Amino acid sequence: MEPVRIGIIGLGTVGRGTLDVLRRNALEIERRVGRPVRVAQVAVRNPARLAGVSPVDFAVTGDPFALVNSPELDVVVELIGGIEPARELVLTAIRSGKHVVTANKALLALHGNEIFEAAQQQGVVVAFEAAVAGGIPIIKALREGLAGNRIEWLCGIINGTCNYILTQMREQGWSFAEALREAQALGYAEADPTFDIEGIDSAHKLTILGAIAFGIPLDFASVPVEGINGLHGMDVTYAEELGYRIKLLGLARRVEQGVELRVHPTLVPARHLLASVEGAFNAVLVKGDAVGQTLYYGRGAGAEPTASAVVADLVDVARTLTADPSNRVPHLAFQPEQLAELPILPMAEVQSAYYLRLQALDEPGVLAQVTRILADEGISIEALIQKEAPAGAVDVPVVLLTHATREGRLNRAIAAIENLPVITQPVVRLRLENLDGLR
Amino acid sequence: MEPVRIGIIGLGTVGRGTLDVLRRNALEIERRVGRPVRVAQVAVRNPARLAGVSPVDFAVTGDPFALVNSPELDVVVELIGGIEPARELVLTAIRSGKHVVTANKALLALHGNEIFEAAQQQGVVVAFEAAVAGGIPIIKALREGLAGNRIEWLCGIINGTCNYILTQMREQGWSFAEALREAQALGYAEADPTFDIEGIDSAHKLTILGAIAFGIPLDFASVPVEGINGLHGMDVTYAEELGYRIKLLGLARRVEQGVELRVHPTLVPARHLLASVEGAFNAVLVKGDAVGQTLYYGRGAGAEPTASAVVADLVDVARTLTADPSNRVPHLAFQPEQLAELPILPMAEVQSAYYLRLQALDEPGVLAQVTRILADEGISIEALIQKEAPAGAVDVPVVLLTHATREGRLNRAIAAIENLPVITQPVVRLRLENLDGLR
Prior knowledge:
The structure is a homodimer. Chain A is α/β, with parallel strands linked by helices. The first copy, chain A, folds into 3 domains: 4-132 and 304-338, 3-Layer(aba) Sandwich (Rossmann fold), CATH 3.40.50.720; 138-301, Dihydrodipicolinate Reductase, domain 2 (2-Layer Sandwich), CATH 3.30.360; 347-432, ACT domain (Alpha-Beta Plaits). Helices cover 36% and strands 24% of the residues of chain A. Chain A is built from 14 helices and 16 strands. In chain A, the strands form 3 sheets. A 6-stranded parallel β-sheet of chain A has the order 3-2-1-4-5-6, sandwiched between helices. In chain A, a hairpin with a 3-residue loop joins strand 10 and strand 11 (292-299). In chain A, helix 1 (13-24) packs across helix 12 (303-322) and helix 7 (160-172) crosses helix 8 (176-185). Chain A is globular and about 85 Å long. The two termini of chain A are 43 Å apart. The interface between A and B is large, with 149 and 149 residues.
């Protein structure tokens, strides 16, 4: 089938990420959509943005208005940010009958009502998953996944810069100024961090979340906002002593008189899941009347996490353009003729780390025999603890953690260990996963 | 517009929940879909299931095959569970051109390939968000929200019964048998808990998750499964001492030779977010190549959480039947003409609890003056701590937590407190949210 033709305006961090993801996962995406999704044109003000892009297998223009007016494109991806010319570009793309994907929360929070009305009249989609909480599909969860619920409230950590600063204040005992300086040095905060630290970026996102949660027009100007720039380190410490952590939350809540939408530093109970969301991560907690509380968590910024959301929107639009409505999303996510016949490995071939508990007679040389057997199978030990024998017991528990190994090997080692005369019971074997990369 | 006409087979826990949610949120759902979603017929074997349903404003039949063949219905909701007659009913509904919504993970894990092929040929949707992780929209996240990613691995706590038992073993120091008995007494475990505790239910769900993550056919028979029924309390304790918690995980991972799909008790680091998922909650962690790790968390079972997913599927189908494709999901979740004009409250009218820090001269009577002012405004104090003055300071910090109050009142109290001669600096005021209901 003919490719879906994409035009991208802006090749900054997210634009480059989008290009990378669309290329790297081209086959995966085609298997899902049923036709290729191809970048046909890119608009960049500064041609230096193209450095390192290879091959440049798309048209390049310095004039974004030429791109949005081009008859050769199906979808425009707006990634320049800011209000103008982004607003005019998006409206022009809509008027010329193109679907639009954007990550521009400021634009939508301020001009979304006008933009969505234009799109509605023109019969095109303006998709904006990337505008809130980066790669976390929170827009889709609220608009579709929780569509059976009356949403009662939601609250979110939706600015990673602030969350990183707050984490550093708490963990390092730093002042706000110190934590901000470090965040800037590490690239977690902009040179001009105003929009982040004053809560404005969070308020843009909350405006969007509140509108789709409650079905109200976008109204950024009415959202009370307080940032983290006035926060004292001593209050972070005292909050901690009282069992709370301070997070910059965006809150939306139905109340009798209307709705609350507000952004401010907030004490949340330290044992609450939301308090465990640290560093540059985002999370949104949603309370629906039927589902109760659900939480969505992941990276809220960065090239590829944001690109993940942009490309998900592109897949959504492409599926809409491609399939008859009832087959818009294939049952198993990929087109039926595109299912792969990957073998499911038997357990003996699986790699894992392990927890082992042996029950052994309390004699000298036991550990030497056990560790010899493991070494012979090439299994290395991460930790070994010999426990005290319970009163009256003839054997003592020995607990071992191994590094990752093939389960077939481990099973052979266990059989050999169970054959040792000093081992009194079958070995207990549990798998262990470190799930690296998330704190 | 004409209502979308629903037929429900089975009025057990989830069936009743679905009926309740569709009724309670009828208006909210109509605002989202653009037309009413109405239960037109229900099939129940035992008419006693109708006790307490009022009004019975739908047709009732004892013959589910009459329902799936009825020309009066657009969508069939299958909620009887088990393999037969559910399989035959679903296939018959498909053949008669109806869309199907089901929560039946066993049916899909075992016969999904056949069912989806039939649906594909007939051009109808079989929607199954409720089959995995209850109200958490994980199917939608994987099939749509993360569609730009190559999914590398996922793992989930997808059986609340097992998770509840494991939590009780860890927190109470109980044996497996003791924890199971309590779970049965409280209704968290069935009288016959085999499917749960042997990991079979988790494996059904994992089979579905693995298929949509990697684009492979459903193949339950190849999934290695180990339950929690052989687990010793002492291993739960030793794992804890080593910094781990034991969870029953379903794991799916791409490896060089194919894919791993496996269910077994697993040690995970205690500081990992997944380890904090306790009791009857579910969570799924997904690693995509672009987005990194994302987590989805909520109630994995129960009448209304599962109904939340069933109704979301109904909304999806109804939107497909109703809208032109590009307006399938309204931009702000609700139909544009259905947006509500709810006022956003100014902060003075918002209710919140507060953290206050005063800096006061270390004199007798300070607390009496402060607490008097708060009492006069009707603000009650939850905690009050007078800190030590730092060396050389003339004033001491006094930290207060208040119960919920209107911010306007609090601001008046703060103004009065700041007027006290013993108060040396502006009062620090932070909001506090307890986010009740989630542990």
